[in-house]
Amino acid sequence: MRRWQMSTVVLMLVWALAVGVGKEQNKKNQPFPLNLFAQATAESYIGEKECAQCHKTQAQTFNASPHALYVRNPKLSVDKRGCEACHGPGEIHLEDVKDLTKVVSFSKSKPKEISLACLRCHADTMRLSQWHRTSHAQADVACTSCHQIHREEKGKAGNGEKLTKFFASPLFVTAPEPKALLKTDEVTLCGQCHQREVNEFRLNFRHPIPEGRMVCGDCHDVHPSKASQKRMRVVKDMCVTCHAEKSGPFVFEHDPVAGWTGEGCIECHRPHGSHNPRLLKAFSRGLCNQCHTDKGNTHYPGQSCWNVGCHVAVHGSNTDVWLRKP
Ligand code: HEC
Ligand code: HEC
Ligand code: HEC
Ligand code: HEC
Ligand code: HEC
Ligand code: HEC
Ligand code: HEC
Ligand code: HEC
Ligand code: HEC
């Protein structure tokens, strides 16, 4: 062998070794709990029956989850099958059952670790980077703050009853069913941490949440995806998905409605509920005087500026620059 051939072979060997070692280290360096899955081989997975031997209650309460049907599909790769799809490979767990770095414990893991475990499969709902930008992720609210996997029986939320009692007086005309594995119905769930906002829906004028015709998620995107962010990021765009007739374009736009002065609709409306009809911030000239400070009492001494004969086309007009007719 010539010298240059020799050195190429040596170089290639070193390279192969480095890549090999690199791969090994990559597996170990992945954040918990992904490192558990990364270092496992097919034999590390012991199967659901084994887990059920020692964790009878959880094995039973798991049956009512839609996950049960999915993870029992024998065509799936082993790391997505049975209990181990979420809790990690059993062999590593059995090395030391008390060691919480060897099993995914959802009650004891950090919120970030929980999202990694769930998003192994739920990348189609949202990507990890999108989740981590939400104020929930940043405030350490975990998937399992809202979702519950193991439950008593189908349709019945595990600790939902406790949460339903959370409101001193009932909010709902009819109590909605919990869905999407939420711990309880969506509004009660959100209200557990956002009581002030939920109480705004008790005001006389409000979006019809107590009537069960809307939920918080119609306007708030708990799981941001590319498509939903496009709709939800700008308040005006979100409102006009349901109130299309307010979106224009009009020949004569009213700047705040078009969103040219700020956040659009919420410059005049309260999004949740209000003491004033039409969810308005104020039901008098004060509403318009927020901006039109030059229009004193001499301009029109009456109460509201959108009386018949005045600016009835407050959202925009196709015929009148002063917004007095549609
Ligand atoms: C030989 C019995 C045994 C088997 C088999 C077993 N475990 Fe465990 N597991 C335990 C014990 C004991 C603990 C520790 C309980 C404690 O510390 O209170 C534990 C702890 C856990 C925890 C953390 C519990 C907590 O309180 O946070 C999870 C999750 C878990 N096991 C899931 C599994 C899964 C999934 C399987 C199947 C892959 C499995 N176990 C197999 C005995 C077992
Ligand atoms: C889709 C993910 C998922 C699967 C699959 C799953 N679990 Fe769980 N498990 C959870 C979550 C999340 C919790 C926390 C409590 C809850 O949400 O119900 C939990 C809680 C537990 C606990 C209590 C300790 C802890 O982590 O808080 C044990 C033990 C457990 N599961 C065992 C099992 C067994 C046994 C199976 C299979 C029969 C199984 N799990 C399948 C997600 C899963
Ligand atoms: C092994 C892959 C896998 C893992 C891990 C996993 N899921 Fe799922 N999940 C699925 C699949 C597949 C479905 C759809 C099941 C169906 O509708 O039949 C689903 C459905 C759901 C649903 C919707 C249920 C419904 O009724 O609409 C929620 C919520 C959910 N998962 C939350 C979680 C959470 C929280 C975790 C982490 C604790 C988790 N998942 C972990 C695969 C997974
Ligand atoms: C603040 C509460 C909250 C948190 C935290 C949360 N979710 Fe959800 N999730 C919801 C609500 C509400 C719905 C129902 C939305 C709907 O009906 O479309 C839902 C629906 C889902 C669904 C079913 C619908 C779909 O988009 O496919 C999945 C899957 C899901 N969540 C997974 C997750 C995962 C994974 C995490 C953690 C990374 C998580 N969720 C964190 C509230 C939450
Ligand atoms: C476990 C508690 C908890 C639950 C349940 C919860 N949130 Fe939150 N939410 C928080 C925390 C903490 C923050 C961040 C701090 C703050 O702004 O108050 C937050 C922030 C928000 C924000 C403000 C976003 C921003 O950028 O300012 C909205 C909107 C929101 N949550 C909506 C919801 C909705 C809708 C639900 C029900 C599907 C829900 N939350 C359930 C705890 C929770
Ligand atoms: C009709 C649409 C709509 C509905 C329904 C709705 N919200 Fe909002 N919410 C908004 C808008 C718009 C804002 C932004 C208000 C602002 O910036 O002044 C907001 C703001 C918030 C904030 C942040 C408040 C702050 O001070 O930063 C929270 C938390 C919140 N909503 C929770 C909820 C909860 C919980 C529900 C269900 C009970 C809900 N929202 C239903 C449109 C809605
Ligand atoms: C998911 C659909 C939806 C979204 C998004 C939505 N709304 Fe509504 N809005 C409704 C429904 C439904 C009603 C009740 C209408 C009824 O009772 O006939 C309503 C009522 C109203 C009313 C009171 C109408 C009246 O006649 O008193 C105002 C004002 C309003 N919405 C403004 C807004 C604003 C501002 C936004 C954005 C922050 C918004 N809406 C977002 C569905 C929606
Ligand atoms: C400059 C203040 C202002 C802005 C900005 C504004 N509105 Fe209004 N809106 C009003 C006033 C005033 C009324 C009451 C009109 C009446 O009662 O005749 C009203 C009434 C409504 C109503 C109920 C009555 C109807 O005509 O159906 C809806 C729905 C509504 N607005 C939606 C919106 C939406 C959506 C946006 C954002 C695209 C928006 N508004 C922006 C002032 C405003
Ligand atoms: C958030 C600020 C804001 C609010 C609130 C507001 N406007 Fe305006 N309005 C404007 C701006 C900006 C223009 C563009 C012309 C200008 O700069 O005066 C405008 C234009 C108008 C015009 C067209 C005539 C003109 O001066 O060009 C009328 C009429 C009008 N507004 C009526 C109202 C009425 C009635 C209300 C209360 C229901 C109202 N506005 C609330 C900001 C506002």
Radius of gyration: 29 Å
SSE class: mainly alpha
- How many structural domains in the coordinates? 3
Apparent shape? elongated
Strand percent estimate? under 5%
Could you give the order of strands across the largest sheet?
A: 1-3
Main sheet summary: 2 strands, antiparallel
Distance separating the two termini: 91 Å
Order of helices and strands: HHHHHHHHHHHHHHEHHEHEHE
Helix proportion of residues, in percent? 25-40%
Q: What is the count of β-strands? A: 4
Helix count, DSSP H or I runs of 4 or more residues: 18
Q: In terms of per-residue confidence, which ranges show pLDDT below 50 for 5 or more consecutive residues? A: 154-164
State mean pLDDT (0 to 100 scale).
87
Bound small molecules, by name, code or SMILES, are:
heme C
